Amino acid sequence: MRGQLSVVLVVVACLTLLACKKQPAPRETTNPLDHVDSSRAKPINFLHKTFTVKKFAQFPIEVPPHTVIPRVHGSFKSFVPRPGDDDLSDDSTDVGFLLMNADQFGDYSRGHGGGTALYTVESTHDHEVEFVLPPTQDQPQKYYVVFVNSPGGRAAKSVAADFSLSFGY
Q1: Is 76 exposed, middle or buried (0-12, 13-18, 19+ CB in 10 A)?
Q2: Contact 152/95 with Cβ under 8 angstroms?
Q3: Per residue in 22-61, pLDDT tens?
């Protein structure tokens, strides 16, 4: 009797151990093409200063490769400082604004511009800019923000500018 009880207890113990042994859940496989990259590139503040424009002043921007919606946005205000008084900011302090790709800027800086630019603002002393650039492929693309001293007024004008390059809407 004791032998049968021992055998029954061993069989019950084995069955209990086998019943408690859970199989791990199968690993879920994902297709990398189904994965959406939710990381968002931070804006690049490429121009945040006050500077003097005699003839023109240029500031380069480089858009990284594989950028779908690069966007240049910002504002500027031109003025003539007057010590002991408020800065003068009127039609006599106007400047022009150009946004150009590398080829257009090369032509412009050599005096062969012919007025081509991606975005142009005629003479103004206070303006906001919002412009979506073309998407980039495998290579970064260089652009230039250019401020041009407008005829008339002072020979040198100051410009306070704040511009960023953002990615997406």
Answers
A1: buried
A2: no
A3: 666 667 666 655 554 545 679 999 999 999 999 999 999 9
Question: Which of 71, 54, 51, 55 is closest to 63 using CA atoms?
Answer: 71
CA distances from 127 to 54, 72, 130 (A): 19, 14, 10
Q: What are the structural domain ranges in the chain?
A: 43-167
3-state helix, strand and coil shares in percent for the chain, rounded to the nearest 5? 20, 40, 40
Say which residues have a Cβ less than 8 Å from residue 122's Cβ, sequence separation at least 6. 96
Specify the DSSP class assigned to residue 33: G
Residue from 42, 67, 46, 74 nearest 135 by CA: 67
Domain 43-167 has CATH 2.60.120.380: yes
Name every residue whose Cβ is closer than 8 Å to that of residue 40 and which is 6 or more positions away in sequence: 167, 168
* Average pLDDT of the segment spanning 101-105: 95
Residue 68 DSSP SS3: coil
Gap between the Cα atoms of 149 and 55, Å rounded: 5
- The answer to whether 101 and 61 are in contact (CB under 8 A) is no
